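Hi everyone, sorry if this is the wrong subforum. Our group has a chain we'd like a structural model of before ordering constructs, and none of us has done structure prediction before. Sequence below.
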Amino acid sequence: MQLVLEIIGGLLILVFLVVVHELGHAIVARRNGVVVEEFGIGFPPRAWSKKLKNGVVFSLNWLPLGGFVRMQGENDAADKKGDYGAATFGQKTRILLAGVLINWLVAAILLTILAITGLPKIVDNQFSVPSDTKIIGKPVELTAMSNGYPAQKAGLQSGDEILDLAGKAVTTPEQFVNLTQENKGKIVSVVYERNGTKKTVKLTLLSNKTGPVFGAALGQRQVIRATWSAPVVGVVETGQFTWLTLQGIGNIISNLATGLVSELSPSASVRHTGSAQLGAVGDSVSGPIGILGTIFPQAEQAGPTQLVFLTAIISLSLAVMNVLPIPALDGGRWYTMALYRLFKKQLTKEHEEKIQAVGFFILMGLIVLITIGDVTKLFK
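Answer:
Right subforum, don't worry. Here is the predicted structure as tokens:
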């Protein structure tokens, strides 16, 4: 039952982010004289629909994987009044990029809210306004357990927050390590918190002269809190994470290209390196299943702050992906239109449909491959 609730919750978040993206297209299209014929939540087959007073058909559809907007004359060569194709180049640009802007703004708003309540600090140079910033350290957390060591034998788990060891409050990972070294070989009490409940357990630390005596990796999350500068922090950090996302995509493309070239090499050692790079690409890319598998386990372990933060990052990722020159996505449609205009060639309906169809099938193929990888990772 818990898994079903997690999947439903994850779908709701993804659908919300895609729907607001499509809503951006619809609003800007209507403001620029383009007739919006249908606005749908989910993908066909249609479950229910109603024609609104403004003439737009609002529909709910059976496949809960996002949403769509259908415009009149939705190809570059259409020329009737109210057609998308009849709009100017500037109007089409605004329509295509409206969804990107909406997703970017959603991310900025969520990060602004978190800047007030507590924004996770995940990179060393994460932006903040020093005069209006308070960095708060969360409790020391167990991030991984070592098999056969005292921590695991005592029932401690990854995600437990350590509050006290041997009667002394724990505030930093360094202090925790020092306390374990001071008490090696002794029976000590550990006060920890799990899912909001405080518990105490006793365990015997190892007496190793060198090496671990407790048996767990440690981490400590930090959050940034601001007041008047929260909107500035939200917007600038959205820009900062946008750049990091682009860098990540660049690394994936670089590893993919290098890996494919290496796989064709006659050298066994080079082919081995290529396989490792292709494996790194697979590990760093997630599709819908991977995202659903991430969202709610994160929320369950770390609470609403991590969930809101993850939602902001996914919204930002949607914005970045849709601005890239990938056929079938907004960026691909814009670049296709712009290139034909640059070379002063007419983008016919047939050519546009072929380009977008090829891009769509390539995109679907990648999604299938990524989904297979997601399922494999889940079973692992």
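For your construct planning: The chain has two domains: 2-115+309-379, 139-220. The longest helix spans residues 230-263.
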